[in-house]
UniProtKB/TrEMBL annotation:
Enzyme class: hydrolase
Protein family membership: Belongs to the PP2C family.
Cofactor(s) the protein requires to work: Mg(2+); Mn(2+)
One MF annotation (Gene Ontology) recorded for this entry: metal ion binding
Name of this protein: protein-serine/threonine phosphatase
Source organism of the structure: Hevea brasiliensis
Length: 322
């Protein structure tokens, strides 16, 4: 596994340091809930996956460290073929990669590209369909978020929203520079006037020969952190949620709901309900992952006692007006 220093040297991986002690004995206990609604769209093109016990899912022979979990949201466009294919295969590509488990980060990056190529090779699928891909792989205390597209992962840390991914919109400065450097154009916020995201799997009608650099890429950006007692839950959502809600608002809603009923699935339903109430125009898919069997504790706001003192000069001034 790469060290934090090694990861910081890789422009594709961001290390998000937890404020907690690195020697913490905290080990997360995973439980999740999900909700997906078509919304105002004519078709449902989102896909998602929730695996709370990855060791059990893969089998004892996998040698995957426990506890382990895997989650993903895949926001399809131009049909469901790409999103469905990636949902079914992305974990397999990660586990079977030659870098796994020595360098999980490299395995994830490679898996996104391999999944993109494998989709293009499937003659029974519409390779002009596309999908964003947001995955969360957790083993022990290590959380690795990989993102290609405009889905978003947000960590709830004692009531604060910690964004674990960046929205890959064509108008994002870093994406705009990358696109234009590779000969692409952005028209009215769309990549080459066609696509509202700057990274996606599929969409092979917009990509060049395999292995060539092109404005639309399937390569993910990664963020990694070590979970601590302060990290209470993770929210994964497609842009149908984030188009109408801030990251902090979502964290506040989930924390409040968990304190009421401690049910991750009800939390995901509440976020979807709120997004629909706010008239989101897209499909809405949300996953809420809790890291403890217990609800979040109440946040105690320290009471500061303010002492006011008046100088002798000030006191004399007041007396002079009495």
């Amino acid at each position: 596994m790469l060290t934090a220093a090694d990861l910081s040297m890789d422009v594709g991986i961001v290390v998000n340091e937890s404020p907690a002690d690195e020697k913490s004995n905290f080990l997360p206990v995973f439980r999740s809930g999900s909700c997906a609604e078509r919304g105002l769209k004519q078709y449902m093109e989102d896909e998602h996956v929730c695996i709370d016990n990855l060791v059990e899912h893969l089998g004892a022979s996998s040698n995957f460290p426990a506890p382990g979990a895997f989650y993903g949201v895949f926001d399809g466009h131009g049909g469901t073929d790409a999103a469905s294919f990636v949902r079914r295969n992305i974990l397999r590509f990660i586990i079977e990669d030659s870098h796994f488990p020595i360098c999980v980060e490299k395995a994830i990056e490679s898996a996104f590209v391999k999944a993109d190529y494998a989709f293009a090779d499937d003659s029974e699928l519409d390779i002009s369909s596309g999908t964003t891909a947001l995955t969360a792989l957790i083993f022990g205390r290590t959380l690795i978020i990989a993102n290609a597209g405009d889905c978003r992962a947000v960590l709830g840390r004692r009531g604060r929203a910690i964004e674990m991914s960046k929205d890959h919109k064509p108008i994002c400065i870093s994406e705009k520079l990358r696109i234009e450097k590779l000969g692409g154009v952005i028209y009215d916020g769309y990549l080459n006037g066609q696509l509202s995201v700057a990274r996606a799997l599929g969409d092979w009608h917009m990509k060049g020969p395999r292995g060539s650099a092109c404005p639309l890429t399937a390569e993910p950006e990664l963020q990694e952190t070590n979970l601590s007692e302060e990290d209470e839950f993770l929210i994964l959502g497609c842009d149908g949620l984030w188009d109408v809600m801030s990251s902090q608002c979502a964290v506040t809603i989930v924390r409040k709901e968990l304190m009421l009923h401690n049910d991750a699935e009800r939390c995901s339903r509440e976020l979807v309900r709120e997004a629909l109430k706010r008239k989101t125009c897209d499909n809405v898919t949300v996953i809420v992952v809790c890291f403890s069997p217990d609800p979040p504790p109440r946040i105690e706001i320290p009471q500061f006692r303010v002492q006011r003192s008046i100088s002798p000069e000030g006191l004399n001034l007041i007396k002079g007006h009495m």
